[in-house]
Write a structure and sequence with these properties.
The chain is of the alpha/beta class. About 45% of the residues lie in helices and about 15% in strands. It contains 8 helices and 7 strands, in the order βαβαβαβαβααβααβ.
Length: about 250
C-alpha cells in the first residue's frame, strides 16, 4: 500500500544523506517530491531523474532556506509547478563544531541561521496554503543533540533544541486547522559523511548504542513516512527519537 499517493511534498536539503533517503522512500509511496539543494547540482539532478523513474512528479530547486525572500519565492514556484503542498520537511542543516572557547561568532550565527531560521522561513511560507486547505503535516529534522546537548556543538545543539520548541509552538497554533507539526531527533546516522571517519571511532559509537548499529537514512525516512501519512493523524507536537536507544 502506498501511504502518500498523490501527496505533494517539499523536502529541504535533499540532494544527499538523510534528505535523499526521505525523498526516495516518499516517492516509492506515491508522493510527488519537490526538493532543494544549495550547491550539489549534479547529485540533485540525478536524484530528480531517479524519483521520476518511480512514476511520480519530482523537481530539484536550487534555493537557500535560510533566506526568507528566497523561501517565499520557492514555495510560490512549487505551488505553480505542483498545484499544492501537503507535507513540508525542514531538513536543511549544517554543522560548525568547536568548543565554545574556540567558536567564532560567525560559526554560531551561521548554524542558527541555516538550521533554525530556515525552519521559520519555510514554515511561514507554506502556512497560508495549509491553512486554506485545513490540513497538512510539517516535520522538522532536529537531533538527539538538541535533546541532550553535546560538548563542542553548542551552536548545533541550540539550533536543534530551538527547532523542538518551535515545533511544539506551531503544533499548538495550527492544530485547530488540522495541521500537524512534529519533530524527528535522529541519533548516529551513517551517511556519506560518516563514511569518511575513522572506522574504529565509528565502531565505538555503534558499540555504545543499545541496538549496536548506526542508523540509516531509510530508518529516518520511515519515521518521516509515518508522520507524513494518515497513520499519524492524531499525532502532533511530538519529538520522535530515531536513535537506536541512545537516549534510553
Amino acid at each position: 500500500m502506498k501511504l502518500l499517493e498523490g501527496k505533494n511534498v517539499i523536502i529541504t536539503g535533499a540532494s544527499r544523506g538523510i534528505g535523499k533517503g526521505i525523498a526516495e522512500v516518499f516517492a516509492a509511496h506515491g508522493a510527488n517530491v519537490a526538493f532543494t539543494y544549495s550547491s550539489s547540482e549534479a547529485p540533485a539532478l540525478e536524484l530528480e531523474k531517479e524519483l521520476k523513474a518511480q512514476g511520480v512528479k519530482a523537481k530539484a530547486y536550487k534555493s537557500n532556506a535560510a533566506d526568507f525572500a528566497a523561501s517565499e519565492t520557492l514555495v510560490s514556484q512549487i505551488l505553480e509547478d505542483f498545484g499544492g503542498i501537503d507535507v513540508l520537511i525542514n531538513n536543511a542543516g549544517v554543522t560548525r563544531d568547536n568548543l565554545l572557547i574556540r567558536m567564532r561568532e560567525e560559526d554560531f550565527d551561521s548554524v542558527i541561521e541555516i538550521n533554525l531560521k530556515s525552519v521559520f522561513n519555510m514554515t511561514k511560507a507554506v502556512q497560508r496554503t495549509l491553512l486554506k486547505q485545513r490540513k497538512g503535516s510539517i516535520i522538522n529534522m532536529s537531533s538527539v543533540v538538541g535533546v541532550k546537548g553535546n560538548a563542542g556543538q553548542s551552536n548545533y545543539a541550540a539550533s536543534k533544541a530551538g527547532m523542538i520548541g518551535f515545533t511544539k509552538s506551531v503544533a499548538l497554533e495550527l492544530g485547530s486547522r488540522n495541521i500537524r507539526c512534529n519533530a524527528i531527533a535522529p541519533g548516529f546516522i551513517e551517511t556519506e559523511m560518516t563514511g569518511k571517519l575513522n572506522e574504529e571511532v565509528v565502531q565505538g559509537w555503534r558499540d555504545a548504542i543499545p541496538l549496536k548499529r548506526g542508523g540509516s537514512p531509510e530508518d529516518v525516512a520511515n519515521a518521516c513516512l509515518f508522520l507524513a501519512s494518515d497513520l499519524s493523524a492524531y499525532v502532533t507536537g511530538q519529538v520522535l527519537n530515531v536513535d537506536g536507544g541512545m537516549l534510553t
